[in-house]
């Protein structure tokens, strides 16, 4: 039987999500790179970019002057599946912006610890 939302695993992944958010706001490229799985299968779909593989993700971050726009997290949902897989979904709002953003991440436990293997960032449209 698959254990969902084990409190100990939830705490681990929540701490990793907090670490990611702090690194994102500080534009700490070393930490951001360390949190993504270094593999060609790692994917990041951003607001304005589609990145396949760790190398493309790292190059994008290196080339983004000033880093990510500052934001505050409005809501976060962490869900764990067993001991080695989790999702983190959050809503955010960029400073000075009215639109709400969304971020989804899939985290997997590797021999090097928890890593993001898939991420998607988008901004909500004015209407659907």
TrEMBL record:
Pfam families: AtzH-like. The gene is hpxZ. This is Oxalurate catabolism protein HpxZ. It comes from Gluconacetobacter dulcium. SUPFAM superfamilies: NTF2-like.
